Every structure is written in C-alpha cells, then in structure tokens.
C-alpha cells in the first residue's frame, strides 16, 4: 500500500464538509446552479451523503459531503469519501478545526489500506487528498505508515507469522532506524526467561525474546508487547470457535512495533527499548500443564491453573527485565483477556495505571486523536485473588470475576522498579468494517500514547 497526499499544486475539486447544522448557510452561499442541483438531489448533509455537483463541461464543480461534527458518535467520517468519490484530487473546505482536519486526513490515508500479501490487487489510483492547511502532514504520514505496519503484522496468517518471522519484522524495523537488536533463545532463554521458555517449548517454532534499543538521551521508555503468534490454548485447548482469531494474539507486539516506529521516525528525544516475547502456545507432550508451578525471572513462583492464560506469563519475564533498569515509563500492550472485551467492547482500549498524570494525559490524547481509551482500576483488594495457596501467584484465578483487573494486577507485580507503569488490554481486531478500519487487524492505544508522551515526559 502506498501512502501519500496529492501534490499541493495539483488541480483539485473543492470538497466541502457539511453537517446538517451548517447546510443552510453553505447552500445559501452557492450559485443558483449549485443550489438548484443540491435541491434536486435532496442533499441534507447526512453522514456519508455526497453531493457531486457537475460543471457545464461535465467535470465536477464542487462536492458537498455530509459528516457529523459530533465526534462522540463516531470517528473518521470523511474516510468513506476516500473510497466512494470518483477518481481525482480533492481539497477539504469548511469550518473545521486543526484536530478535525487531522482526523479527516488520517482517516483518508487509512481508508485505502488493504492486506495484499496473500491476494494482491485492489490498490489502484482512486480519490486523492491534498494535505489540509495547518495540519502536520509529515506526522500524519508517519502515523499512517506505522498503523499499516501494525495491521499487516496482525493480518498475516499464522503459518507466515511465527516467532521467527516476528523477529525478522522487528529486526528489519530496528535496522531501518539504526536501532540495536538482540534476540535471546535456546538455553539462554531457559536460564533467564523461564516463563517464556515454558509457554513456547511445545512448538516446533522456538520461543524467543526480542530486544530493540534506540536513542541514547532523554527519559527511558520501554514498550513490552505480547507476541503469542498463535494460541491454541495449550493443554487447556480452545474450542474451534475461540481459536479462529488467534493469529491476532500477537497484536500487542504488532502495536508496540508500530508505536516504536512512530517514535523513531518522529525523532522523539527518548531512550527507547522494545521487548517482545515471541512464542506459540502449542500442544505437545512437553507442553506446560495445569497445576505446574513455574519460577519466573523475578523469582516469584506461579501456579498454572489454565494454560490458556499464557500471555501474562510471557509478559511477566519481559516486564521483569524492563523493570531492572528502572525506566521512567514502562508500557505493556497485549490482547490479554476476554473480560476486557465484555466490559468495553472491541472499539475501546482499556488501560491500567497508578500514575494519575499518565491517566489524564491518555484520556485527553485519546479523545484528541480519535483513539478511544478508558482507564480501569488496579483494584488492590483483588490482589488476594491472584495469590494461590502453594505459590506466589495464580495465573488464572477461579470464578472468572474481574478477569481484566486480576490479569493487570498479576503483571504489575513484575513491573516494580519502573517509575510509571501502564498496561493496555487491547483487542487488536476490527470485527466489522468501519470508516478507515476494514475488517481485520488494527492498532489501538498507540496514537493516544504517542500524543501523550511529550506531556507526560516533559519533552
């Protein structure tokens, strides 16, 4: 997929973004011919309604496009224009704020996304957009390209995206920005990261820990992403209906790689580290078992009460490594619990943090950049639920109550040492087509984090 804005000097058609409330004034400002045409086609400014007004030579004279100014009812409304308008170049007109223009332009770029690795085609020239005046076009292009990376990684079929392929993608990203990279596997993984090794050992595709570093000045920021390339559930085997989307169980890894790409491409003055435990959770004679008690990198023991709660195990060792350097900001992202989906659905990324400034910044940024997030609590009284009788921690507390919170509390035990820790329990998948978001893999929380970092870190 090629991402770009049209040249600034290209001949273009004016694209007026008009909601029902602004329609009367805009209509009255047009020529008699335009008003006549608008009335004949019954243009009301409803969301997604297009008024293609022809000129005398048959070319487009002007386009009116209905959209909502109430962003609470949806996102990227103008993105549908990118795929529905005739081929040509367009320039947005109308009384829109810079934030609204930025959202419109980003949505337009993302509307053309197609996963074409397995079925090429569908990327022909279509409607193109001039970068709206006042927006940071280079930043929007970077964000869109990073989102494409995330989507492509999630959408790749599991036979083509195992731990080794995820390592290759991460290392290629590191090389393109001059970042260092180190991968731990084999005996070193067994000694230093026993939970990662235990989860991944049943697969013929060996587990590994991917470690990228970039930047040598500024606050220390560590991103940890769950890289379970396919999750059968292990010996607690998932039913087929629950296994159908498990190629997306590395969505946390894909999202932090997209976020890391934005941070590096935009040159944020931070010391960035990315840690990805990459594994398959498979079934074999040497798979880890329910009732096993495993020792983590940190030394805490974990009783395994469900092998399908493997994501928190691999994250635990990676978080422990990250916390050993006492970073200023530690963020984990994972497609972790069904409980988070039940609570907030697929569109909202819940996050957990004890850092009030970080929480406020994320809520503000999520609303500002059309990347909805919502804070859930690290509820301390539930700590007892993750403490079994025979080990320090339980990976799957009985009863199923507050599953997203207990998983987050489990992870927090391994993040001690970081000045600020935030955990995202994302879905990483668009279950039905929406503007700028076709069915398939999608990044969540990354744009909110990117927008919040300067404020949180004082950059």
UniProtKB/TrEMBL annotation:
<dbReference type="GO" id="GO:0005737">
    <property type="term" value="C:cytoplasm"/>
</dbReference>
<dbReference type="InterPro" id="IPR043472">
    <property type="entry name" value="Macro_dom-like"/>
</dbReference>
<keyword id="KW-0031">Aminopeptidase</keyword>
<dbReference type="InterPro" id="IPR011356">
    <property type="entry name" value="Leucine_aapep/pepB"/>
</dbReference>
<dbReference type="Pfam" id="PF21337">
    <property type="entry name" value="Peptidase_M17_N_1"/>
</dbReference>
<dbReference type="GO" id="GO:0006508">
    <property type="term" value="P:proteolysis"/>
</dbReference>
<protein>
    <submittedName>
        <fullName>Leucyl aminopeptidase</fullName>
    </submittedName>
</protein>
<keyword id="KW-0645">Protease</keyword>
<feature type="domain" description="Cytosol aminopeptidase">
    <location>
        <begin position="306"/>
        <end position="313"/>
    </location>
</feature>
<dbReference type="GO" id="GO:0070006">
    <property type="term" value="F:metalloaminopeptidase activity"/>
</dbReference>
<dbReference type="Pfam" id="PF00883">
    <property type="entry name" value="Peptidase_M17"/>
</dbReference>
<comment type="similarity">
    <text>Belongs to the peptidase M17 family.</text>
</comment>
<dbReference type="GO" id="GO:0030145">
    <property type="term" value="F:manganese ion binding"/>
</dbReference>
<dbReference type="InterPro" id="IPR000819">
    <property type="entry name" value="Peptidase_M17_C"/>
</dbReference>
<dbReference type="InterPro" id="IPR048816">
    <property type="entry name" value="Peptidase_M17_N_1"/>
</dbReference>
<keyword id="KW-0464">Manganese</keyword>
<keyword id="KW-0378">Hydrolase</keyword>
């Amino acid at each position: 997929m090629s991402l770009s804005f049209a040249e600034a000097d290209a001949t273009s058609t004016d694209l007026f973004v008009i909601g029902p409330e602004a329609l009367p004034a805009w209509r009255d400002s047009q020529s008699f011919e335009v008003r006549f045409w608008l009335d004949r086609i019954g243009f009301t400014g409803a969301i997604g309604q297009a008024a293609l007004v022809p000129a005398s030579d048959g070319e487009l004279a002007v386009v009116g496009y209905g959209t909502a100014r109430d962003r609470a009812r949806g996102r990227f409304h103008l993105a549908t224009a990118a795929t529905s308008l005739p081929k040509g170049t367009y320039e947005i007109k109308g009384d829109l704020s810079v934030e609204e223009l930025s959202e419109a332009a980003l949505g337009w770029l993302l509307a053309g996304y197609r996963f074409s690795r397995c079925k090429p085609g569908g990327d022909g020239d279509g409607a193109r957009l001039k970068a709206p005046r006042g927006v940071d076009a280079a930043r929007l292009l970077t964000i869109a390209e990073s989102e494409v990376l995330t989507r492509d990684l999630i959408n790749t079929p599991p036979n083509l995206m195992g731990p080794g392929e995820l390592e290759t993608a991460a290392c290629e990203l590191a090389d393109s920005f001059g970042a260092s990279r180190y991968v731990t596997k084999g005996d070193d993984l067994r000694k230093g990261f026993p939970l990662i090794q235990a989860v991944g050992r049943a697969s013929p595709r060996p587990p590994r820990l991917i470690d990228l570093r970039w930047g040598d000045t500024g606050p220390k920021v560590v991103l940890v992403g769950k890289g379970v390339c396919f999750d059968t559930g292990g010996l607690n085997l998932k039913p087929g209906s629950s296994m159908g989307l498990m190629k997306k169980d590395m969505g946390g890894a894909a999202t932090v790689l997209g976020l890391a790409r934005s941070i590096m491409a935009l040159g944020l003055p931070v010391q960035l580290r990315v840690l990805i435990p990459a594994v398959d959770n498979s079934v074999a004679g040497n798979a880890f078992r329910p009732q096993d008690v495993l020792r983590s990198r940190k030394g805490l023991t974990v009783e395994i009460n469900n092998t399908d709660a493997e994501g928190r195990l691999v994250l635990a060792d990676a978080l422990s490594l990250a916390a050993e350097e006492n970073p200023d900001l530690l963020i984990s992202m994972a497609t972790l619990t069904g409980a988070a989906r039940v609570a907030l659905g697929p569109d909202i990324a819940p996050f957990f943090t004890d850092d009030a400034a970080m929480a406020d910044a994320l809520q503000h940024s999520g609303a500002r950049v059309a990347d909805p997030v919502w804070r859930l609590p690290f509820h301390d009284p539930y700590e007892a639920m993750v403490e079994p009788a025979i080990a320090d921690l339980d990976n799957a507390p009985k009863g199923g109550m507050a599953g997203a919170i207990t998983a987050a509390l489990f992870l927090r035990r391994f993040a001690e040492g970081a000045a600020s820790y935030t955990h995202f329990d994302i879905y990483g998948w668009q279950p039905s087509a929406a503007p700028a978001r076709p069915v398939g893999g999608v990044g969540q929380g990354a744009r909110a984090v990117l927008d919040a970092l300067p404020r949180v870190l004082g950059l």
